[in-house]
Amino acid sequence: MRYLMMKKPTLMTNKESCVKPFYVFILVSMMFGLSACSPSGPGPLEGKWRLEGGLIPMTVIYTETTEESMGIISNVSYRHDGNDIYVTYESGIAEGHSVRFTRVNNSTFASEFGTLRRVR
Fold this sequence. Notes:
Blueprint: H1 2-5, H2 14-37, E1 47-52, E2 58-62, E3 66-69, E4 72-81, E5 84-89, E6 98-105, E7 108-111, E8 114-118
């Protein structure tokens, strides 16, 4: 009785055997494509800023991989989390430290060191 309930084995055609790996390939490609679209650079923080309200008012410039302030250029990396951008220093005196910048509006970011205002 039990063997009557079992399904009969069927052979897959070449077309059917190629379909599943194709869909897996498409799915994996889409996942990598979406992860590549996530912001990794400075995003809205890119450009020239004036730091106000800190110990020393200064001009700061953020590019894809660096920050320049007071003539010192440091390698940095960026991490985005909602309205926050975390700048992690990968070289220089602040190596290994991160600073969080919270977006107030398109031309203002707040941090524990003061307020960044975009320079036009």
